[in-house]
Amino acid sequence: MEGKMRRLFRIVPISILLVGLVTLSFGQTSTGTISGTVSDQAGAVVAGATVSIKNAETGFARTATSGSDGRFSFTNIPTGPYELTVEAGNFAKLVQTGIQLVVNQNAVVNPSLKPGGVEEVVTVTENAS
Predict the structure, then answer these.
(1) Among the listed residues 49, 113, 107, the one whose alpha carbon sits nearest the alpha carbon of residue 78
(2) How confident is the model at residue 23 (pLDDT cuts 50, 70, 90)?
């Protein structure tokens, strides 16, 4: 009987520890946020722009529309390298690469659109802040 109790006193703390570690591992996330404000070259905000992101490694993609204040936000997105594309009427399409999103980061990208036709594309390669 005493041997069973000793074994029980060893097993219970180990079981509690293992359950706690498993619970902690589920609580960790590997996501971040990409947000910013779309503006034109004069600094005026561009409302209604179509903003798209695509993870260069996994193909994960999302699309949003900039608000009346020009702002957009993609929350809880997987980490990794992203390409951001912005399209709006009477502006050249902008493609920005080199956005490296890390865990819990809010990568701020403030795209500046230049006037242009539908077929014109401006590519920017730089890291987000």
Answers:
(1) 107
(2) very low
pLDDT, average across residues 63-78: 99
Q: Map out the domains of the chain with their CATH numbers.
A: 31-125 (2.60.40.1120)
- pLDDT band (50, 70, 90) for residue 31: very high
Work out the burial of residue 106: count CB atoms within 10 Å of its CB; fewer than 13 is exposed, 13-18 middle, 19 or more buried: middle
* Helix, strand or coil, per DSSP, at residue 4: helix
The residue assigned the tokens 């905000």 is: 45
> Is residue 24 scored above 70 in pLDDT?
no
What is the rounded CA–CA span in Å between residue 68 and residue 82? 25
Using an 8 Å Cβ cutoff, are 86 and 114 in contact? no
Distance (Å) of CA 16 to CA 22, 25, 67, 68, 84: 10, 14, 48, 52, 45
